Amino acid sequence: MKASIMAACLWLMNFAAFPAIAASPYSGNANRAVQWLVSNQNGDGSWGATDDVKLPTTVEAVRALQALNQRVPAYFWGITWLENHSAPNIDYEARRILALAPHGDNTQSGQAYLQAAQRLVSPGNNGWGLNQNYQGAPLDSAMALLACSQLGITTNVQSALNYLKAAQLTGTDKGWAVAHESAGDPVTTAYVVQALVSYQYLDATLSTSIANGIASLSANVGAASPIHLQALAAATYLCAGYSSYATPLLNSIASVQSGDGGCQGSPLATALAARSFAGSMATDLATLATVVYVPDANLRRAVNAALGRNGMDTINRGDMANLTTLNAAGMGISNLTGLEYAVNLTSADLRNNQITSTSQLTGLTQLTSVQLGGNPIAVAAVPAMSMPVLLLTAILLCTAQFFAKRRQQSPSL
User: Fold this and answer.
1) What pTM was computed for the model?
2) Would the pLDDT of 121 be above 70?
3) What is the per-residue burial (b if ≥16 Cβ within 10 Å, else e) of 327-338?
4) Are residues 341 and 361 in the same domain?
């Protein structure tokens, strides 16, 4: 009985202050996908039905929550599970890094493992295989390059890029195969294209390989394909700048998403779908992972409370973008620095604090309601978006005073 009560409490913690996702054609789909992932997380913090799929599935679920800036308790439980489970091969280690590095984890051991496993000596091909004893393969090399990009690594990267360019098929299908097949594999091709896009700044010749890879994906993935392939292809199109290719697949995914938010009842498919929606809404931009400076500890507690998080958790720009309502009356706040990134904030109750300046609120165009009574702040410091209301009030007061004086002068009025 106690266990069931605890589980219910944990579930409620996830939804107590569920951060809203900014409005877009797919915001409802993204919200429902997140709710489904939160509801279908395993008790140990992982996702996936069996041990052999838990690591990659948990990685994708964590990355989906992160891409949508939903750093709710389920996200942190997923991170904790990944921190406590090692990866058995290059592919999984790279995926683990992709989930943990943005959280701020120390990934030096994983980085060293990847660098040591690159096949730079004969008979290697300068890529990565399943481990350091295997010849390089396109999928393992792509995942390793994505992890290297996440970590900002450029050492020996060009050699791996050259390998992937050489491994691209040259027939009608110019994708990448799993091994020696003559047709491109959609999963492998998608991840290779993503890896090449991440290093396009390093090698201008990659544009042709990327375009050919996109053509392969377009030929092999359509509305009849499994949802995880549609989502992976859509995310790849978006990161490569082919948004018009992504839209039909996003619409297809949205049309088959169940009412509870899941996609085919699969955590992996749902997570990939959520991440493709994130790409379409640009909630997955790297800049949104930038930590926001919030020097006022009381304001930080108020913002985290609104987001359903621990009071002193770090706050990034993505978190701030999810803040729509702030109830922070009587919390001893004196400094609003950091709130300038709350671009979707619509209302703020800041009464009875120690606020002397609201300059941080002047650029928040969605903010329509601000309560500032009980603060040592001049009327002139009220944010710009409140000025129309102040101006109307001033006009009404002046008009009332005018007619009051006229009545005194001419009682017949």
Assistant:
1) 0.79
2) yes
3) ebbebebebbeb
4) yes
